[in-house]
């Protein structure tokens, strides 16, 4: 128990601590002090951190005579020191104050958490955080000529003692403040800007610049547009049809400065809402929610009536709807839908009903309807994802599909879209035979079929088909027709008679399409004139010609009827024309291609020896040589040498002969498996289905053909040179494709959907082909949304990819500029989000590990820990608050990062063995995984905390290096860190609302999201990374029973309280007591704790053991055995030995290992004749069975186990000689040792013990 003073007044600080401990102590004894200190460990930590911040705090605490607990007193004194006493004179003073609050906030948060009544302190917390956020966002980053620093003290005085952002009055106060700031900014920044509104003519408020460069107030603009006017009130110039009021398009001047200021105000307000209105995972009052909803919809007056118009920019400034078309923001809705779905639903239904009666500004109403649909869809998808099991998830999907057919409006569409998203994945599992079509799945398919059949193909059915195709493939859609329960999926008008495939070669452009059509026409009518004319062109691209031939020939051969295929005469003529024009002179497989007999590369074994596979060597030899050189100092060997066998395979000679020989018996299958694996990886990286992945490959190959060769010469014989080549290749070929992938894929899909190849001739010759092609086009158009929706109903069912971190990373890659990657921190943050998200659990994890260490040290063995389950922790730590939450935090963090932990090493040593990383922490997982230890499963707990600390430190160091911002020079202990010190982010509740706030999409074009990535990066870094602390982890492992050296314990005990043996009659009673194993273990654990306290505080040797336990230590556990009750403190060691020996006896009788810590080398079996020799020995000493057992047990526990942990040389020592050396001074035991079986060695002792126990339980001869 150590406390180091942190202030300049250590005596006063000690006095404060002692007074707090006295209030917590149940008595004046030392055990009570230890117990109080352990219970107040958090308060002691808070005191130390607070004294670092405020050196005079100890003196103030001594003079504070309130009856509050220590954390409450600290909270009040710290907040009083931060309260502004007068107006700030400059922005710099505000900055100094904000930094003080930033440093103090983590301590205040912890003090509030441990206060007796946190709610009483929350008003002060809200006041302080509101002022801090205002200074941070509005004052420090704003234009200094606005002099917003003068409003800081005014705001502090306006916030009363009951200020709480969960109440409407506080929210209105902030609105009024921002309105006042807005007026001041307008006067300062827009003094030369006047509104040209008919009834205004005053200085513009929230101005919008028209195309003619005249300016309107935002309110005037909305009122003017509400009367269907599209001209300027001043000059009468009409606005262009495609013009949209976006102030952000202005790049200079006072309006841009004013817009920048407004963004800062809105950033402050959004932070206020997310951090305070929705703090503690609790929603604000209903009045606040209704007020927040008014930022999404806004009521304005017109001459006829009044309606609600969509206000797409979240803003507390009441007359704003700048950027209402086409950008929409869903930050508020995402927050509200987590808590108050019914209230939000009611508010939105009212809006929809009103807007349906009055068709003024229909686009704004449509925008809000789509916004609501998307937000509700995300909300319902979250409910599906949170279902506890697969069956529960199916039940939720079925309920959604049923409920959506009973309601109308955006909620109906959102329910259906969320359910159909999940149904697409389920159908893929069923079609691919990865899941059986069970009765429960059929019950889900029934309402889905009803929903899809009641509307046309562009409704729910079309949406479901889009999800299947975009996530998986068109081929999977076609395969659904082989399952009777899925026949409803494809509408009858799109069913195909043949399996027509879209032409992906169309990515090569019009040149390919024209040549393909000419070749196809010749194959149909045998008229050589058009083909001859095309071949006479000097610029015939041979690669395009090969693709044309391959596409045409293979597609015509898909017909079962041979008459549908090109005739031999047509093939011969085509070959002669190609030869005459000297096309494809080096292509040896032309005949095979034209006759559709081109051999496959993978599955044609005779082609394997001559096949050229353009792969790169992996430099395995160099890697192996580097590893051998690295290991040389540890092994002490000379420089390694690699040999080669006659077949050229390298090998090394050492203790074992090992060779590097590829083991690929089936090369085609091996290559195909690799290609399929690469395709899956490409799909995951691109976030798309196999169709789009193949299409992206075609785009890349086309780009490769069109890219001129690099001027650099690369030596590809070593890894470094190949890395340079790969960088150059990616920059020239791959990156341009990825950066424009969405547009390229959409263009290619549009070309395939509109492809009319052979349509005219097919109508004359092949009616079957006509049906196939004409049937495929509309389906492709619908799936890839080639045509724009013609009504609002079709708009509701447009495809929208699920918002995931992976999809965001893909868009980030498209924006990448390698010369100056300004978004690398955002990319790094998102790519490691699952790891960074686990860091938020650190406070709970360290607290749980400390509680487990205190509870189980010296009282549990490794065997018991491995048998105990995690679900038993709440029973063992029944007096620990929120224990289920603590265990859940450990499980979440471990399960999120365990795969990375398997590869994590420090100084070349894996912290957690890979086999342990395969185990998921569940209620049935071993308790040993949560008991920190340097051996065994305890490495899981130590490794997890070490890894999380390292990940935070690594990210912060990268952040510091890139932003040039310095970090704290001293790392903080992980056990002292709060959420405000950590990169604490919950993706669902913290990250995704921010993504939504910086997300935009246009209803008129697509629902694919776009982001303001630079603003998003600034927001994420400011919210989750800035001002965080470096961490250090101080290991504090559990001490298991077998890890503690009993001889040392007894030596320390004897030095404090001299020990003697129990009276013989007491020993006899104890040895003949019939014990239950749990009772015996509990009593031994009680003795362990008593001995440790005796060593610390001492005691009178003739004092009763029960008096020491019950009155001095004040332990609640009662001793009920009459013999133990009579024991004194001088008998503790002998009592412990007797009871521990009986525990070992009982465990052996139950066929459990009582000596688990004994190495396997000391548990060697013994022969049958030796067993008989032991039985003869036991028979000859029948009255001294317990003496023999106690002798062997003490030798094993006190002598053998400690020695065996240091050296295994003792295993071959004769057991009789060792016993003689240990017990030579004991006359009784000397006689037993003299006749002890001489054939036994130390390594036989464990098995000899089993034979002895077995004989004692069932004497035989």
From TrEMBL:
* Keywords per UniProt: Metal-binding, Zinc, Zinc-finger
Determine the domain of life of the protein's source: Eukaryota
- Name the PROSITE patterns on file: ZF_RING_2
Query: Per its UniProt record, what Gene3D superfamilies does this chain match?
Result: Zinc/RING finger domain, C3HC4 (zinc finger)
Q: Where are the transmembrane segments?
A: none
Q: Which SUPFAM superfamilies match?
A: RING/U-box
Q: Which GO terms describe its molecular function?
A: ATP hydrolysis activity; ubiquitin-protein transferase activity; zinc ion binding
Domain RING-type: residue ranges? 200-236
Quote the protein name from its UniProt record: RING-type domain-containing protein
